[in-house]
Write a structure and sequence with these properties.
- There is one protein chain.
- Helices cover about 40% and strands about 20% of the residues.
- Helix 17 packs parallel to helix 18.
- It is globular.
- It starts with a helix and ends with a helix.
């Protein structure tokens, strides 16, 4: 049996990689299927398509996966279907015994080169799978707020226009027919002309969408007679919807009307701490740029924190108080280093200074006993921390794992209440290196629509390493202490969270976005994001003189 397994293993290692044709969807990475994400995580190589961004691929693949570009050749020329097919076969042969993911825009079987590439693999004796994806044909109209059919439509015609062969559009001229055209903007123009020549009414509503399902999506409404002019200036990918259902967009548009749609929000935090806020912003239509303002490093002498962690296990403490997410992370790393888990907190009472820190504990499987209901700060924590009672409290000692630059407010307050405090440096914070020059310029010149500050230190450090945000940038702060620091730095604070949590901060920013949009509509103007308003104001000033 052993020899048989060895032979089988050797045969497998000599065999070309199995290829999985995977649909990447229309652009929004969250529309990728569970199967596609799983295959990407296990891939030895990923062959990308024309619209696939490297950032999306790198975030879903392993660090050693090879990324192969199938959109252009070595000299920048666009590859043909035949050239892509050869590239897929070559990559499969280079990764013997592995897995190659051929990531295709939209759905592999819809206006893609699946037939040619799969045939080439079959001819070469290479096994393959096909994982369908969400097609732009249905997804982009949905994101544009245009249903493809309703009770008044009788047919749906989907046509790919590529310039090489003109489609017969004579069957697409009925008023009850919805036509979806996919192609380059320059190829859409003759298609509009062909529809008109075939007899389609020039007043038929048309929606032109660029960058569908992404936060760069732009939709223009026009008529068939004016569509050739309206498509000018649009970029790939572009999709045109021709038909009566376009008129429903005024009431059904849901994506481009999100409160922060198109905003670029600056998050001065580390990447591992900004994930939930980034996702929440994306849900409101905004992109985000993360600029770390601090670097968290271990203490220079770890013996004190190691003794304290051992004391947790041996019953030295009644309470442990976490004053930051970084403190939670530092203790969690020590636990993992010592082979401990959350069960070591059994019998301890646990305090968290605010909602963000409490969420970090919950991610670890720990529900804190004390989180301030009022001010989320050391002072707020002290107001609700119970004093030491020698009858009710069997142990009088508190463990505070903190930064090397932490203030003594909490320590002094606890001692005044009768507690013995082990104030231990669990981590050091040092100011991060300045971001690249383009990011610094964007901050100071108002290219960002908003900045969200989650602590006083993020205010001080961002101003220190990158300068003050432009006055047109919306400033959002997590609580009163952060607001005070921002104002002391000369910033105008526009938004403060109702609760000291990252989620509450983003919701408050979204509410502010709704208020700005409503004010613009009331003034008879088109809602625009703050950075766009700044550009218009600058242009007006230059025009005047």
């Amino acid at each position: 049996m052993t020899a048989q397994r060895s032979t089988t293993s050797a045969t497998t290692s000599r065999r070309p990689a199995r290829v999985a044709f995977v649909g990447a969807g229309p652009g929004d990475a969250s529309l990728m299927t569970v199967a596609s994400v799983d295959l990407l995580s296990r891939a030895d190589a990923v062959i990308t398509d024309q619209l696939t961004t490297e950032s999306v691929v790198s975030s879903m693949t392993g660090p050693d996966a090879e990324i192969v570009d199938a959109s252009h050749g070595e000299h920048g020329q666009q590859l043909t279907h035949a050239s892509r097919a050869k590239l897929v076969v070559k990559t499969a042969k280079a990764h013997k015994g592995g897995l190659v993911v051929r990531l295709m825009d939209g759905d592999p079987a819809t206006f893609n080169g699946l037939a040619e590439e799969a045939a080439a693999l079959s001819k070469a004796g290479i096994d393959f799978d096909v994982v369908p994806g969400v097609s732009a044909v249905s997804a982009v109209p949905s994101y544009a707020g245009v249903p493809l059919t309703n009770r008044s439509t009788g047919a749906l015609h989907v046509i790919s226009v590529n310039g090489s062969k003109r489609a017969d559009l004579s069957a697409s001229v009925g008023d009850d027919v919805t036509v979806v055209l996919l192609g380059l903007p320059e190829h859409l123009v003759p298609a509009f002309a062909d529809l008109l020549a075939a007899g389609r009414d020039g007043g038929t509503p048309v929606a032109l969408t660029q960058g569908g399902t992404t936060t760069d999506q732009v939709t223009r409404e026009t008529t068939l007679a004016e569509a050739a002019d309206a498509v000018q200036g649009l970029e790939v990918p572009t999709l045109a919807i021709v038909g009566p259902t376009v008129g429903l967009r005024s009431t059904l548009s849901w994506f481009e009307t999100k409160p922060l749609y198109g905003w670029d929000v600056l998050i001065p935090r580390t990447k591992d701490q900004s994930g939930p806020m980034t996702k929440q912003l994306l849900g409101h239509g905004a992109t985000s740029t993360v600029v770390p303002t601090i670097s968290v490093e271990p203490p220079r002498t770890p013996q004190a924190v190691e003794r304290a962690v051992r004391g947790l296990v041996t019953g030295r403490y009644q309470w442990i108080g976490f004053t930051s997410v970084n403190a939670v992370k530092a203790i969690r790393e020590k636990f993992e280093e010592f082979g401990l888990d959350a069960r070591a907190f059994s019998g301890l009472k646990i305090a968290a200074v605010g909602g963000v820190t409490a969420d970090a504990l919950r991610d670890w499987g720990i529900e804190p006993d004390l989180v301030p209901s009022g001010e989320m700060s050391a002072r707020g924590l002290l107001e609700e921390w119970p004093p030491y009672d020698e009858v009710l409290d069997p142990i009088d000692r508190v463990f505070l794992p903190r930064a090397d630059i932490a203030t003594d407010t909490l320590v002094a307050g606890l001692q005044d209440m009768g507690w013995q405090v082990d104030d231990v440096t669990a981590y050091r914070t040092v100011r991060a290196t300045p971001p690249p020059a383009p990011v610094r310029d964007a901050i100071k010149q108002g290219a960002f629509d908003a900045v969200v500050f989650t602590s006083s230190s993020t205010v001080r450090n961002l101003v220190g390493i990158a300068g003050k945000p432009h006055p047109s940038t919306v400033i959002a702060c997590i609580g009163p202490a952060t607001v005070k620091t921002a104002e002391e730095a000369g910033l105008r604070v526009d938004v403060m969270a109702s609760e000291a949590t990252g989620a509450s901060l983003i919701e408050a920013l979204a509410d502010h976005g709704r208020e700005l949009a409503a004010a613009a509509v009331e003034a008879g103007e088109q809602p625009t994001r703050p950075s766009a308003r700044r550009k218009k104001a600058t242009a007006r000033r230059k025009a005047k003189g």
